Amino acid sequence: MASRLSFLRSALPVAAALIGLLLLWQLGAMLFDVPTYILPRPGAIVATAIEKAGLLGSGLWITSVEAVLGFFVGTLIGLAAAVLMILAPPLEVALIPLVIVINSVPSIAFVPLVLIWFGLGIGSKVAIGALAVSFVVLLNALAGLKRPEADAINLMRSFGASRLGILWRLQLPAAMPSIVTGLRVGLARSTIAVIVAEMMGAYAGIGQIIYQSTAQVDYLTVWAAVFVASLGSLVLYGVLVAIDRKLVWWR
Amino acid sequence: MLDKRAEGASGPAHLQLVNVWKRFGEGERQTVAVRNVDLAIQPGEFVTLIGPSGCGKSTLFNMIAGLLPPDPDGSVVFKGQPQQDGALLGKIAFMPQRDLLFPWRTVLDNATLALEVEGMSKKAARQKAEALFPEFGLKGFEKHYPQQLSGGMRQRVALMRTFLFERDLILLDEPFGALDALTRSMMQRWLLDIWAKHKRTVLFITHDIDEAIFLGDKVVVMTARPGTIKCEETITLPRPRDASVVTTQEFMAIKRKLLAIVEEESMKTFAAAGAA
Fold first, then answer.
1. Same domain for B84 and B110?
2. Which residues on chain A are in Cβ contact (under 8 Å) with B66?
3. Which residue segment(s) compose the domain that B152 sits in?
4. Are residues B197 and B259 in the same domain?
5. Which residues in A lie closer than 8 A to residue B62 (C-beta atoms)?
6. Inter-chain contact B116–A154, Cβ cutoff 8 Å?
7. pTM of the full predicted structure?
8. Angle at B93 between CA A150 and CA A157, to 5 degrees
9. Contact A107, A132 (CB under 8 A)
């Protein structure tokens, strides 16, 4: 009950601001008679979204599946790599420079290569999403796993804890806040990467709808697709906040 | 060869340090943290260790806990067996200076940490810990998180965690150092009660002379760095001791004597720091 109330209290101003903005946009566009291809009115965008609900819905579904799959695969790879590097420090010394180099190139730059390697279907989108996520998760998890001080590790050792016991009971929980930060950044990145990859080559998905509608000079559909994509990422963000609360309950 | 003290009236020592050294660094840069420490602790004894800050008390402690290997000159003998290469890990209940409670675990689950590490099931460990809560003055706080507790309570949780790791020898590194004077004296009396009931051997580090005398069967004084043992004073004050013991003539006499020794050592540290 109390949490529902606090949710309303934090969601209300956001919703009010959003509605205000849309109203301002609608009135402005009507007042200055802005042509549709430059800035369509929100009313028309919503009408298009409803009209093409079938197309947009199936596109959103495919994009979400790709982004979430890529997110999971990337998270698994990132976490596994971080744990391996903590257990075998030479691995970290050897690989981290490489990771930083690859991570400093926007993952979108790899889209053409990924399309060649994995084709135009879901595989290439999951791969690019995973690529976008794994490095952020790896770097954040690594920093988090190193957070416990020597004193705390020594305490565990004095209890006779093994290397894995220390990892499981001390380092992993201590790393949770920083891992969750990595997940949050990673999810945003994987969504972007997947949509861009769809625009560059795909059979379906929100990115592909945006690409095709642009080619057909159908700007209302482009805007409707962007609207739907924003709604989708809003939902994903909400899921992440819930994950944050679940994994970092002690804060 | 074992020191003569090992074969005292009460049989073999619980823990014995024979010519223990610890040096850090190499060549010119080498510093000696602990030199030539000989010490024997009998079963059931409460030994307090005082010395100026930075005298190597904690280094000595880490060696006894098995966290740090002593230099090859000497040895740590535990129940008659020389210990090497972290062999002491898991044999001694060690409580570091800071409570180091895990913020993601409830008070109850912090207390059971060592039991879980030993492989006891969560349920059994919790049952065992729950029985101790009233005695440690924590009843009703089982489901709280450490960050919701006061300093004195946190320290009691850390002590409970140490006691639940059932080893005969307990190492306590200035457990009450961060507490205010009132809480501290309460905790000291409480610790003596617990000790009397559970009959464990205790080695207790402190920099507070009153605390050392009040708690100990024996007070061991360390010198300034490089630390070694300056003298040992057997405390014959009758037990059980209550707060009034600190104002007795006997207590004062011991305190005057120890104070003179500790002051002398502290001045050395001070002078060394000034010269550097």
1. no
2. 157-158
3. 101-166
4. yes
5. 154
6. no
7. 0.82
8. 35
9. yes
